[in-house]
Amino acid sequence: MKLHTLKPADGSTKNRKRIGRGPGSGRGGTSTRGHKGAKSRSGYKRKLGFEGGQMPLQRRVPKFGFKSLNRVEFKPVNLDTLQQLATDYKLETIDFDTMVAHGIASKNDKVKVLGGGELSSKVSVTAHSFSASAVESIEKAGGSVNRI
Contact, 118 vs 79, CB < 8 A? Predict the structure, then answer.
């Protein structure tokens, strides 16, 4: 066997359709595009969401409500999660970098500490935002709250 004798396995390759090469090709005339309509014309490009003239889904579905362009999405973190961190790693300060390092938040998140669960450790917590109940619980346990 030599390089010049190599060929693909039988049936693995197929000749492409040669379209628009006259009547002798068997695909002359309309060149497999049918007779009339937008798809038969040159330069046809289907619009995104076009359903053949039927009312498109994005126009059929009713729209309601209000979506604020200035909404800020927060990653919620409860007090019991902070307590778990403090006991497992013996921490006295929990800041945003600590939460990122332990997989609680990603580096692009904004963190809001919520008052779910109990906090018994004296911990200094630094985050983007806090709920009123979280601030009360942290200060009651002897800790402090710092906003970024």
Answer: yes
Contact, 91 vs 85, CB < 8 A? Answer: yes
- Reported as a single tens digit per residue, the pLDDT across 112-139 is 999 999 999 999 999 999 999 999 999 9
| Percentage of residues of the chain with pLDDT beyond 90 | 82
Beta carbons of 75 and 107 less than 8 angstroms apart: no
Token pair for 122: 């004296």
Give the model's pLDDT for residue 3: 95
Q: Is residue 79 classed exposed, middle or buried when 0-12, 13-18 and 19+ CB atoms within 10 A define those classes? A: buried
Which residue has 């307590």 as its token pair?
83
Give me 81's structure tokens.
Answer: 């999660």
Q: Average pLDDT for residues 8-33, to the nearest whole number?
A: 90
Query: Alpha carbon of 41 to those of 38, 50, 63, 112: distances in Å?
Result: 6, 17, 35, 56
Q: Alpha helix (H) ranges present in the chain?
A: 57-60, 79-89, 96-101, 132-140
C-alpha count within 13 angstroms, C-beta hemisphere, residue 44: 10
What torsion do the CA atoms of 90, 93, 97, 103 make, to the nearest 10 degrees? 40
Average pLDDT along the chain: 93
